[in-house]
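Reading a protein record of the kind used here takes only a little practice. Think of the row as the fold of the chain written in a discrete alphabet. With that in mind, consider the following protein and its fold in token form:
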Amino acid sequence: MKLARLLVLLCAATGWQAAAQTWDTSGNGMLNGTYYFREVAYFFSSTGALSPDAIYGTIVFNGNGAYSINCTVYDSTYGLGTCAQFSLPTTGTYSIAASGYGFLSSPISSKVNVYGLVSQQGIFVGSSTESGFNDLFIAAPLASPLPTAATFKGSYWLADMDTPNGINSMFQVNPDGAGNLGNVSLTGYVYGYGSTVVTQTAAAVKYSFSGGAAVVAFPSPSNATLIVGQKYLYFSPDGNFVFGGSPTGWDFLVGIRTASGTPSFWGLYYQAGIDLASAFDSYYGSLNANAGLAVGHQRVNDVLDSYLYGYTYSEPYSVNPNGTYSIPSVMNYVVGADGVRIGSGIGPYLGINVALPAPSISGSGVFLSPMGVVNAASSAPFTAGIAPGDFITLYGANLAPGIATAYTVPFPTTAGLDGVQVTVNGLPAPVQFVSPGQISAIVPYAVGSSIARIQVNNNGVLSNVVTEFVNLTAPGVFTVPPGGLGYGAVLHGDYSLVTAQSPAQVGETVAVYLTGLGTTNPVIPDGSAGVFSQTNNTIDVFIGGIQASVGYSGLAPQLAGLYQINVTVPSGVTAGDNTLEIVGPDSDAAEALIPVGTGLAASASPARQPAVVRRPRPRRAPAR
């Protein structure tokens, strides 16, 4: 069986070994009781054949870090030609922080973790990103009383991703509460057919219920292209979110109940999904949506080129009265009741996405928000993690007695600022600014470990501890105005700001100011003014998707807590606003913009290739 081979793979997998670290488990009670779950995982055999597994059934969380599972495995064995179906009772553990962020041991092997987040509705969404394969895992509490055919009625949007067959579809259904969906019109895309829209009408679709789950039967005419056969659907307790898939297939289906009136898409969301295009990846993460602009993070595993990284990005959005909106050529979205969002890819970019509102969390005393550790430059959400030397912003309540700023360097560490100290894994962090609701600090270079425990000391009163994953890099470009959206803080050679009125030119070398590039050589004391100290990590820059020449990547001289990249604008860049993308060994930050003019720099010279060029990989879209 392929399961045996999979166990060998999983036991040898490398990456974050979070179970061996000290992770906040104060949120374990967020997972408690009986849940329906579905996990679909994709592997490649030794011959290169796609070899998926589907695992579905019930999982019982005890609220204290242990679970038991009774599920069915639909195993592809040796590729798609031979399949086996068997039950798999097992047990495992889980660790969930106060934010809802955490991990559970894989139902397949305790050597691997499924990383993810628990939403406001108590739904867990995640992916085994550190494991060398692609998967999507969703679990939702089983409602009481159990859903029935009579409770499944109204208007729903559904998105289905059948990855092995390269099929992506989205459609509306209108269950009548009596077992009928009627005629269903589907639209979608098929891998290899580019942006050609495929349509299908499924006639007289029926559904029934068993054990609180729906069984939907799509007819199987010879001309069916997008969806056929049975689909199992599981429901959130409020019925606003559904998910599932085929009991004898490897698709994943997510759906939302249509909202009454224009739905709200605002605030912090937890997300997960699968992509299939030039890259094949799965991910989990979070996003902040505010006033038509979202800043997001995805922890991505791209199995085709064995690339594991954190992807931060920005995307515009404008929700229509019916809850729909699109990112052109990338994904169609629908926002439903309670603000839950689902997404379906636009060919040739195939994918599926679910985003659920994060829980609201508050605390008493000196309180550091569990979601409140963000990149000080980009405002990338907390799931992006931190890096050595990273400038971070901490949000909370009663963090300081008043407002104070450190105007000289080195920034205070053990002495604190206005009596306020910050520690990261017990190391004193340089503090640049404090206020009751916000602190600006720098992650010590010697933070070590794959997990950081962050705590605030307000004049002898300690806050709660917040845990974050530590990366090699976590880039964030400073922007003007601040916040991570819009034009990056980029200077011409004469130290004037690059703006739309004074854009960078092809062949010109400009200086980009940012944070999160990790350790440097030589090492400097924490919080001290920067010197010419180059990053130990290779940093690449892309402007408008074209790789640029990097002349210097290191600390910004005479400035504390800042990094600087000297980069030459490459030929071929289109005039206008271009995405400024910073790529590290474990990161890809594509939030800020750089305006590029129509001319050439006065002293343009041939672009110099970086000393080390990362291997080619598929470029991803500037927005999701």
Summary: The longest strand covers residues 32-44. The two ends are 37 Å apart (CA to CA). Residues 156-256 form one domain. Residues 307 and 444 are 27 Å apart (CA to CA).
